Amino acid sequence: MTSLLSRFGATSLTARVALGVTFLLTFGGIIVSIAAFAYGREAARTAYDRLLVGAANDIASAITVVDGHPVLELPHSAFELLALAPDDRIGYRIVGPNGQTLTGYDEIALPAGLAGYSDVFFDGAFFGEAARYVVVSRRFAERTWSGTIRVAVGQTLQARNAMAVDITRKALYVLAASGLAMLLLAVLVVRAVFNPLKRIAGGLAERDPHDLTPLDTDVPRETAMMIQALNAFMGRLDRQMNSMRHLISDTAHQLRTPVAALRAQADLFSDEEDPERKDRIVERIQTRSTSLGRLLDQMLSQALVIHRGDSVRREKIDLRDVVLDVFEEGDHAVLRPDIAVVPQLADQPVYVLADTTSLQEAVKNLLSNALKYGRAPVRIGATTENGVASIWVEDVGGGPDPEILSALGTRFNQSGLSRQNSSGLGLAIAHAVARSFEGQLVLDTHGDRTFRAALCFPEIKAEAA
């Protein structure tokens, strides 16, 4: 059963539609065939019943009373009507008031309880063969004789059945022709409907593997959602590819100078004989290694947040939890144990739609910058105001240099930042996180007193979240 379903799932849409139309036509054809046969039988019965009534009335009208006795001379017109069915056998019986047979076949049994003068039809047999009969009554009220004479005329069913079959056969011919025409029309319509899909498939097949530009959206409404989904997927893939290319390019650009400097210091150390100078060279190597390690961490962190911004499903997050997670990890105590970090949280939840890991990376970089370049006290908090949710880091100081702020969000702004201890790269990471979740990085400087870096996002109400 499972294999059958899997094979059906692999069939083309055209085959599925054709199979569905064929099933509907077959089911409908069976119903129409039954209805056509029933209609044919009814039409044949009505037509031949009228012939029987006409023949019986002709015979009844030919009965006369002579010398006090009913006399019948069978009219030829009655049998001419019934002769329209040449293969059928004809039988008749004329019954007097006392039930005696005046003429005809005694084998024809009239139904019991005949009353009134209306025509009565019934099914019976004529010498072992199925037949159809009609009984016509005629009332006589003569001075010499009075009473009711009943005329029964019957006919076998060969012509009736042949007529019913003929009507059914002709109806089936029309039905079969109509069904084939509908099936062919359905196939043509389905092929025409699927032409946009074929055009889309052809366009994708002819594309360069590196071409991730959006597809043409001039398509029928039913396929527009698929095109939009494809374009969104290719957009995410294009951003991922660009991020990968930028990461490789930026990494090579950033690491060339520090690695060359380390190599030069190592060469100097191997050639130096003075112990004091060797100690200074080792100190410089250690400083540059630490700086290089931090630079690598920040670049990998930036690649991580850019990747997660496009690939990770957004979820409801309370920014207060992010603040507590960063605070409890205690990285600040390792970087600057002499500076106390004070958390400052709102009383109510501060909900946004984002990714916890990305927000934590951004806040860690902002906190690291504050500890490295600012002065105590350093505060970290989450607040909301006028529908805007913010997670921020604040320190005492003037903030980064103006050239760093002007280069924020552009490529290769890290090249100069490595020489300035990479303060701008941390801001670039925070900027990328804010942009990934429809937010913004707001830098607020009050002279030399305080500097606040805040990630601001649209607030999600607790009920909606």
Automatic annotation (TrEMBL):
Its EC number is 2.7.13.3. Residues 191-242 form the HAMP domain. Its main location: membrane. The chain crosses the membrane at residues 20-40, 171-194. It is found in: Membrane. Keywords: Kinase, Membrane, Phosphoprotein, Transferase, Transmembrane, Transmembrane helix, Two-component regulatory system. It catalyses: ATP + protein L-histidine = ADP + protein N-phospho-L-histidine. One of its GO terms (molecular function) is phosphorelay sensor kinase activity. GO terms for cellular component: plasma membrane. It comes from the Bacteria. SMART domains: HATPase_c, HisKA. Residues 250-461 form the Histidine kinase domain. PANTHER family: SENSOR HISTIDINE KINASE YKOH, SENSOR PROTEIN QSEC. This is histidine kinase. The gene is qseC_1.
